[in-house]
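Hi U.,

Before I forget, here's the chain from the pilot set. I'm dumping it here mostly so it's searchable later in email.
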Amino acid sequence: MRIAVLGGGPAGLYFATLAKQLHPDHEITVWERNAPDDTFGFGVVFSDETLGGIEHADPAVHAAMRREFARWDDIDVHFRGTVHTSGGHGFAAMSRKRLLGILQERCAELGVDVRFGTQAPSAAEASAEYDLVVAADGVNSPTRAALAGSFRPDIQTRRCKYIWLGTDLVFDAFKFHVLETPHGIMQIHGYPYSDTESTFILELHEDVWQRAFGGIAATSLAPGESDEKSIALIRELCADVLDGHQVFANNSKWTAFATVRCASWRHENVVLLGDAAHTAHFSIGSGTKLAMEDALALAACLHEQPDTGSALSAYEAERRPVVTSTQRAAQASLEWFENLGQYTHQDPPQFAFNILTRSRRVTYDNLRLRDPEFATELDTWFASTHATDVRPPMFQPFRIGNLELPNRVVVSPMDMYSAEDGVPTDFHLVHLGSKALGGAGLVMTEMVCVSETGRITPGCGGLYTEEQERAWARITEFVHGNTPARIGVQLGHSGRKGSTKLMWEGIDQPLPEGNWEVCAPSAIPYSEANQTPRELTKPELTEIRDQFANSARAAARAGFDLLELHCAHGYLLSSFLSPLTNRRTDEYGGSLENRLRFPLEVFDAVRAAWPAERPMTVRISATDWHEGGIDVDDAVEIARAFAEHGAAGIDVSTGQVVSEEKPQYGRSYQTPYADRIRNEIGREYAIAVIAVGAISSYDDVNSLILAGRADLCALGRTHLYDPQWTLHAAAEQDYPMPWPKQYAAGSRKPQGGRTDGPKPRLELLRSGETGTAHARWRPGSDR
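Structure:
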């Protein structure tokens, strides 16, 4: 096979070495436009996991790399005059120049034809002449641009500027320095890569960059030239960090990170590798790692599969999930640094934990395994802020308004579709009672509707008759009489999403018969299958407002501890908030201020009807997941408006507003919205923020609470799977949480621990020609 490799960076060279070892008869040519020693950049970072794959795939390359490594276990967070150190992280770094030198030497040993200082042929020319074209031509890939119709790239340029530098200050750990300058917050990412030098990256939001460097930064530079005026100012701004040491440049200039994603990585016999196919923010040290893992997988797939087409399909199928997982973590890290300013009010221990867990790959449990002493220090600090004993963060008590909760776990509202004429049944007693017995601090009802025509389905509960009130009172009495849990009611009106089937009969599908008329701010149906709603008149708005207030009074008499107003998920109040569903031209439509008017009128009426000493919260959809709809900036203002009207908490969900939504699902995928609201307005108004959405482990709950991204965590499906989830979480963490006396005999933790997530696996390949064993490494994905 004749293979053309376009680009002589780590991805292209490493692929060439592996492919040549597996098939010495392959004719492999690498084109690199730069000279062998024209190396830009400083250090590159590898995790122990990646190095394991390299060692098994090519021991010679690994041995040469190992001789060059600078290793460290610690991460130091320098913030507001403090240093917090976390150990056990296990990284290695080396000079990018030396890495390329090792790979160049290995190519020469194996007979790979590497053509330096030579412009690569175009993708069309190469694909016509070669059996396989491997485009390893970097983030600005000409191949990707030329075949954009096939690769369908999505390139997002981010909001921070950064510059890559070196220093002769040899850091003894990975260093995060947060600098409070006259221009604003800046951050340093620093790590050693040899016994004489370290990488030194300065990153800052574009607004701060404009104030600090906008007037002096070079507007154009020749290839290889560095921005010397900016570097001179950096030496001044970072003088305390550098402590008299030198800063040096190597093609160092300001840039904004570009996140590259491609819908496909192949076109006929052309395949993308490394940064040409995908990028992940440098703050998780993954660029060279991903590139070399790509190279390993591609070489192995070409060896295993019967033909090139099958190999390229297998390569993409294997690598895409891993890359997607890494990009998700990198995106979380990138966005954390973009929004760094919203965390600088935090106490240094919490800030240190927050920065360490920003990508969600390092968690509370994970950190406890890496560095138990540091984790204990964090628990001790968190306990001191609550004047309690040391315990896992999720078991620290919390006060929402005047309501004391025994822990931070909330059973999220979940529609059960099992009421009869709006009356909760024995099912609800068992359903909600079991969750309260299971240890959660707060148990929420499903959306309880304020009128018969405000129900979603015929099976939805209500609070508009005396019989319904008595049935709910029976449930609250059970919870209060048998558990330390508190119980809250969520009041709502279905709006245009009403008069539909029970969930298991067809979610959001209209009833086959017996439909009632639905209403909304505007006459826009939820989908083509649903009714067109009646646009509400002002007298009807007043009537619905009064229905909410009447239901609130009934909820108070029924003994609920907390009331939540449902302004999310496309139901009536939510549909007033979103411009996608509210097209009114009166004072209730148009601007966000106007769209908020009716939900706030309802809130005020309910707040007046609800006892002053009992807290009231609001659930919102922080994004519509649709262009032109509510976004996180709007959500902050919506939360602010409710806080100003007296909300004690904001329950932050997303979506379900329009049927055409395109959510970005993933682990804890909604928590960044709660994070933003808590750290932007939570402190200002002293309101609680509840995170919800694919939170399924106590590790996630502890991590979110300790990092200050939320005050409470609401879990729904998790409690359906295990009604005693909170009790079991306490047992798993050896926290002596009291069990109901009837359950005490089962409170001892079962023998045998839980199993961890997937581990990387090694599979040996054997080359038929050489008989040499090569390791096939496939990393496991994060959970």
